[in-house]
Write a sequence for this structure.
């Protein structure tokens, strides 16, 4: 075939690859799917991810492999997802790497708007304001009064500079018109120990971190940062609207399912539908709640909106903290 | 419930056939992952975690616990035979264990390490039963200032171990402190010495550092030596047995190491690596002939091994009595409980006594199994030395890479091991002791965060270190130690002048 020229070859290869693409979409996934998690096995983000990936594997008819790539507050997990195979690498992440990390870390190596395709919100978690059981303030108003006695009268613990616990406390301080002393720790375990030991006064923390100590009579919870009471700790009053705190005060951590920006839109749509269905399962909701998470779900656009809203809110808090 | 009732109840849980099987499984697995350099309890437990979904929570915790303390037994094997610590906790065991092996006393060193591990664990268990309540109170009353002062004392006390030249020792400690600074500063969020690499934001991987400095550096160093040497010396059965003198030297270090380990294990965040270092430093100080240390002193094996095992047991004190995990591995174990819907916390002891006492009894059973398992294995481990280095070393390098990768699934860490290994070889050639670098690396960040935290809490007033009683005692001890060292050095110089 001497006249089999390059143009024919090109046309043929185009036809072939076109057919291949169509087939790939119909049959997706044809191989195991990888979900990157930026935290170690056994951590709360990891357990959340596994609650989703196990039923997801059944629905997709392919194994869904959780890849734990811990480090840099979850940023490494997102980086590794972006380096993964197209249409087969996804991720679940906490809010930090998508909202505050690009501000706080010199170079995260990705641009959230350009490189990340949101799939769906998985769950949200409010924080509670906790103190030692024998501390004087009995409610949020009393806490604010005590803090107003003098600047830095109250020392609070967080899980690190720029962590959700730190930024939430600063958001609260700004809303309440108070100034508190920030003492960073590495984990909630250390923060609770320090509060019980009387070294620091307070801390914003995950309800599940405070609850065991509250039940043992060692700590108390003054308020919660969600806009509605939270099912895990239904008796804790919402902070919004108390004392001079505005009614729209709200601070929540969240966990979301994401994909690299180049992912086939049909696949994102499929994943959104499947994950939302999984989140409707009462057993999954129940398990999330015992860990202090409220199952959410929603559209990809909802998640986009949340990312941009939170980037703005927390960005403003970071600006204030940096200006201090 | 009295301790006696508790123990009886614990037996009924721990002797259940299913629980017993998982206990055996855990300790056997622990021994082997401990022996393999680089692969540690952390990696093994995270791999086992998904399995625990399907077994009872008691069996799950007992198995994971078995892996944790079982690894402390195995860790010493490679430290003694190859100067290659199986786990960072047993790095200090290389200092005297390896010289013993070179003197043909590998069997004795392994025996000492096994028996010390066992008795150290028993001390830890006794503390867990008798003093759990007291220790958990101690853990909450220890503030940042107390931690900082205690760690400074530890650093000063241990900073001359394993080195003849004080200048070289000091240089290594400082280098370790600097390497410990790498990563994100907790207080300000500023990145230090990361050179823009995201992988360094959480600091240098401890396992990569330990494996590079000891393992890879040792292998590079031995490649040339192995070409020259013939087969390693034949070890007869007689040489496996400790002499009466050896046995006489064991009880002291074991009791002191066990006690030290029990204290450090119970304090969240300090851990067994530090307790093994401090036990070594303590043994050298109380010894009448400290110059024997580093030349194959059996006390230098017994103390640290008793300490790290005791610490592995007492680490369960804050975890079980307060619901506060002292290290990432303990956090993982709590995660296993959360999966089963058990919320760890101060109430767990009352709400789930089967959990606590079952675990305590299983520690006893597990350690007995480990002793019975490991004593006969000594002969087999020693015969490993007869494997030609050209077969052994490539295999070890593979295991080191696997182990380091398993910590957080990062190929960056494997490259780090290679770089650290090359640097470690140069340090070894120049006769610097890497153990001190590791000491600085482990203690430095703890001292820094606690010191700065204490200053923050004290609103900038350094008197917080003297007004808190625990801290004041440590500060006084540190000052006494430094004064004694300076006075000793001055007197030596004066005597030298007098003779002239």
């Amino acid at each position: 075939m001497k006249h089999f020229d390059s143009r024919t070859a090109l046309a043929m290869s185009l036809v072939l690859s076109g057919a291949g693409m169509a087939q790939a979409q119909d049959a997706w996934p044809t191989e195991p799917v990888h979900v990157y998690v930026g935290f170690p096995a056994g951590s709360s983000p990891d357990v959340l991810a596994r609650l989703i990936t196990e039923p997801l594997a059944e629905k997709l008819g392919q194994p869904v492999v959780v890849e734990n790539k811990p480090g840099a507050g979850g940023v490494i997990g997102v980086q590794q997802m972006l380096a993964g195979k197209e249409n087969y690498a996804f991720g679940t992440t906490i809010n930090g790497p998508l909202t505050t990390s690009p501000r706080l870390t010199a170079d995260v190596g990705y641009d959230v708007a350009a490189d990340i395709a949101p799939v769906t919100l998985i769950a949200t978690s409010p924080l509670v304001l906790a103190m030692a059981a024998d501390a004087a303030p009995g409610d949020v108003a009393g806490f604010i009064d005590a803090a107003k006695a003098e600047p830095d009268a109250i020392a609070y613990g967080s899980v690190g500079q720029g962590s959700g616990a730190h930024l939430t406390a600063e958001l609260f301080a700004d809303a309440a018109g108070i100034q508190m002393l920030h003492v960073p720790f590495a984990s909630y375990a250390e923060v609770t120990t320090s509060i019980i030991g009387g070294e620091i006064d307070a801390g914003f923390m995950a309800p599940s971190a405070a609850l065991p100590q509250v039940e043992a009579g060692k700590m108390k919870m003054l308020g919660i940062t969600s806009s509605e009471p939270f099912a895990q700790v239904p008796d804790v009053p919402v902070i919004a609207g108390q004392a001079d705190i505005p009614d729209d005060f709200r601070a929540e951590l969240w966990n979301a399912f994401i994909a690299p920006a180049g992912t086939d839109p049909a696949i994102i749509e499929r994943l959104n539908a499947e994950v939302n269905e999984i989140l409707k399962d009462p057993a999954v909701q129940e398990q999330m709640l015992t860990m202090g998470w409220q199952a959410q779900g929603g559209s990809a656009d909802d998640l986009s909106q949340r990312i941009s809203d939170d980037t703005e809110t927390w960005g403003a808090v970071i600006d204030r903290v940096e200006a201090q | 419930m009295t301790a006696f009732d508790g123990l009886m109840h614990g037996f009924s849980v721990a002797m259940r056939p299913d629980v017993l099987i998982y206990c055996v499984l855990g300790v056997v697995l622990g021994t082997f992952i401990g022996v393999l350099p680089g692969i540690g309890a952390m990696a093994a437990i995270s791999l086992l975690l998904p399995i625990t979904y399907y077994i009872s929570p008691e069996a799950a915790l007992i198995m994971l616990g078995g892996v944790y303390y079982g690894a402390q037994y195995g860790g010493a094997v490679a430290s003694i035979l190859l100067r290659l610590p199986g786990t960072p906790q047993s790095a200090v065991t290389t200092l005297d264990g390896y010289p013993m092996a070179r003197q043909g006393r590998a069997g004795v060193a392994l025996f000492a390490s096994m028996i010390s591990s066992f008795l150290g664990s028993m001390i830890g268990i006794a503390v867990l039963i008798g003093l759990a309540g007291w220790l958990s109170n101690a853990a909450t009353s220890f503030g940042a200032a107390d931690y900082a002062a205690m760690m400074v004392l530890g650093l000063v006390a241990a900073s001359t171990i394993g080195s003849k030249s004080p200048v070289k020792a000091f240089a290594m400690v400082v280098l370790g402190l600097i390497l410990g600074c790498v990563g994100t500063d907790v207080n300000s969020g500023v990145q230090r010495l990361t050179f823009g690499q995201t992988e360094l934001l959480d600091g240098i991987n401890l396992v990569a550092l330990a494996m590079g400095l000891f393992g890879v550096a040792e292998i590079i160093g031995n490649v040339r030596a192995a070409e020259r040497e013939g087969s390693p010396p034949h070890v007869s059965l007689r040489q496996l047995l400790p002499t009466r003198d050896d046995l006489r030297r064991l009880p002291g270090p074991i009791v002191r190491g066990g006690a030290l380990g029990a204290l450090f294990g119970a304090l969240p965040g300090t851990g067994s690596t530090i307790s093994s270092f401090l036990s070594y430093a303590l043994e050298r100080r109380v010894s009448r002939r400290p110059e024997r240390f580093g030349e194959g002193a059996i006390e230098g094996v017994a103390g640290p091994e008793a300490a790290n095992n005791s610490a592995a047991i007492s680490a369960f004190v804050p975890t079980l009595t307060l619901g506060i995990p002292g290290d990432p591995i303990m956090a993982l174990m709590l995660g296993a409980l959360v999966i089963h819907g058990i919320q760890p916390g101060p109430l767990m002891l009352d709400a789930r006594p089967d959990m606590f006492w079952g675990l305590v009894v299983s520690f006893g059973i597990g350690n007995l199994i480990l002793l019975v398992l490991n004593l006969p294995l000594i002969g087999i481990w020693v015969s490993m030395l007869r494997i030609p280095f050209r077969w052994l070393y490539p295999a070890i390098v593979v295991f080191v890479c696997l182990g380091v990768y398993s910590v957080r699934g990062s190929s960056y860490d494997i490259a780090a091991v290679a770089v650290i290994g090359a640097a470690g070889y140069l340090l070894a050639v120049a006769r610097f002791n890497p153990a001190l670098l590791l000491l600085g690396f482990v203690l430095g960040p703890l001292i820094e965060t606690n010191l700065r935290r204490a200053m923050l809490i004290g609103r900038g007033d350094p008197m917080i270190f003297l007004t808190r009683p625990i801290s004041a005692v440590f500060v006084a001890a540190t000052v006494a130690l430094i004064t004694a060292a300076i006075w000793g050095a001055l007197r030596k110089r004066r005597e030298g002048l007098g003779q002239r």
Summary: Chain A has two domains: 31-124+252-323, 128-224. Confidence is low (pLDDT under 50) at residues 6-24 of chain A.
